[in-house]
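Sorry to interrupt, but I need a hand with the structure work. Could you write out one complete protein record for me, on any chain you like? Could you add the entry underneath, on a fresh line?
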Amino acid sequence: MKTSFSFIFTIIIACVCCSPLTAQDNPQIGLPEGVVARIGKGALGEVHFSPDGSQLAISTSIGIWFHDPETGKALELLSRSHITRPYTFARPYAFAYSPDGKTIASTSWDKPERMRGRSIPAVEIWDVATGEDKAILIGHLWRVNSIAYSPDGETIATGGWERDNTVRLWNAQTGENIFTNKMQTKWGTFVIFAPDGTTYATVGDVNTVHLSDGKTGKHKIMLTGHTKRVSCAAYSPDSKTIATGSYDGTIRLWDVTTGTHKTTLSSDKESVTSIGYSPDGNTIVCGAGNGDVQLWDTRTMKLKSTFTGHTKRTKSVVYSPDGNIIATASSDGTVRLWDAATGQAKATLIGYMRINAAAYAPDSKTIVTGNQDGMVHFWDVSTGELKNTFTGDRGIIFDIKYSPDGKTIAVVSSYNDRVLLRDAKTGKHKATLEHFGLIDTIFLLLQNREYDINSIAYSPDGKTIVTGGDYYTVEKGTVYLWDARVGIRKRVIFKGPGAVYTVVFSKDGKRIIATGDWKNKVRVWDAETGRKLTPTPADMLSGSKGLLHSADGATTAHVHQNGTVRITKRETTLEKK
């Protein structure tokens, strides 16, 4: 954590990709000590303007990024090293500004040293000017899904997630839990305060919205009428109306005092995923499941305009306090800034992603990464700048490797448990490693068994690929050999008890080394015959799947738990022979 958060910034040159309006949104701000470059800015969470409109804040799985709302230029990163629970996937987190803009409340897993080594869900309140912790709210049993300040700043409302579907009210000064309400939802609970503070609304994974007293938490009204799950809600500036968006493709307006349904705005989109009011109350902005952003006139109840650009679900929409700018965040990993009056795109911020796997190119100049959304990105090792992008496969990318000649990348996907071989320059499909035929697939479905490929590796000559995986519902693993050119399976090396986590070839290509659920032991096989061998000291694997060493020995890359890659210079380099 930084000891100072004074917002004194140096000039940042953004990496421009695709168009003059697209900003790489410099991910090299706030690098940890010893790190020379960062790839990625963490998975995208929420976007909020500061109350005075001077900053746009974006939460990610590594912290909160602050930006100039006019240009989108990255200004500062408030890194939060304990925002995720250890040994779990990093998740973007909820946060909220206090009404005076002096503090921010954000989701975290409390620091282990503060709780006798345990890591538990919490809400942290910290000072915006200094970045120092002010208070910690502990009480939720699982991670917090939503945070909102009351307009007077005296109360914080939090909504739980999954195993803890509660809404809790807290004293913002003392951290005391003053009210807890159990919600009838399966997953998360979203909560917002009315601008006048008299009520707050809660939205879960059901077709209803609940309004409760803003001071006591006592339930007042339930709004019913949507035919599918309600995804979002927003109060009008005068607190008299609440707008709700749903996966039924409609926006419904309700009287806050009586709960009476006032009107329905029928979007031509299949789902409404985010919603907000303009500061003057004359416009409702909503995000759709296909990425479009729509503006509705609240006086005529007519559609005013549609902004297009996002390619996936728009997960967050918000007006600047002066009403001139709309910020939208999407599952496509971008944040877009729009001129609210004209719809003109002001800036597109990129670099927000959840990186699962990475690999060095043989020349050590490029790192390729595989993401949560199935995208493959190529990065310059020396600068951390994006060089190229293409689609790897549908589903989550679990592992990715370069062929020894650097011409092919192998991509492991969660989709259909397969490996795709693609041209490293063009992304053109070259071959598919299919683990199962029709009979195997039917067998898996009938037995309710699920299979994952966890690791892949090329032989030194590039002719063979080894894959390791597991049927994790029955605790069995596999090691297979494949022809790297045509994708045909050549040999079953192992199929037995214990999940296989990593597979590599020995440097001479004669042995296959694997780690798995074998009581911390390694297993070794002859790559030609498949005969099991006795491990030698040379077969002991160093590092981890997430720790990569460049071929020239100059740098190391660490695929961090928070979904980014950190590049560090090594003290010594390998001697060239």
